[in-house]
Write a structure and sequence with these properties.
Blueprint (H helix, E strand, L loop, with lengths): L1 H4 L7 H11 L6 E4 L2 H10 L11 H5 L4 H9 L8 H4 L17 E4 L3 H7 L23 H10 L1 H8 E2 L2 E2 L5 E3 L5 H4 L1
Parallel strand pairs: 1-2
Antiparallel strand pairs: 2-5, 3-4
Helix pairs in contact: 5-8
Amino acid sequence: MCNNLFGGQPKDIIESNLCNVLEQGHLVDLVMFRNPFSWLYSYYSHNRSGHSGWLDVNNTHKFKSFEELIKAYVNPNFDWHIPTYKMGYFAACFNNKKEFVPKKVIFFETLKNGLDTIGVNSYGVLSGGIQPNKYKEHYTDELITLVSNYFYKFNNFIGYDFNGLTKDRVIMNGDEIKWDDVL
């Protein structure tokens, strides 16, 4: 099942864990969606455990700038290190029948309210120095256009633009999300 979902590529530990959850029939109750503009900057700038970029994307592809990452990401001919994430982080939420698996979606931009709504104490969860608007200073008009076009269906359906959520959302039911609406 997951070989189809992940393009038959070797899976890293995150993909393996997700595949195990899906293959064993367990439901993922909750996922978090994030503005794709913010997510891509985080993907590039993540720096932990000696990795440059999330899952070492910058070293793997020899990116020297955020602009290089964006232009490669939106290029349909560029061979991305994890094919599923080339479609967007949210693509991993679908099984190979193109069904959205999680029951609920909370949004990064309204995370505290979302956690409070589902009865999860957000104390301590929201630490770590995340600066929600830091990504904006790294985008040019050209990069905004490239990412807007690439994630057009997702942004339009979910309600994102460069500045964040365009719809007043805290939680969304997973059964509202269809493959053809976002990918």
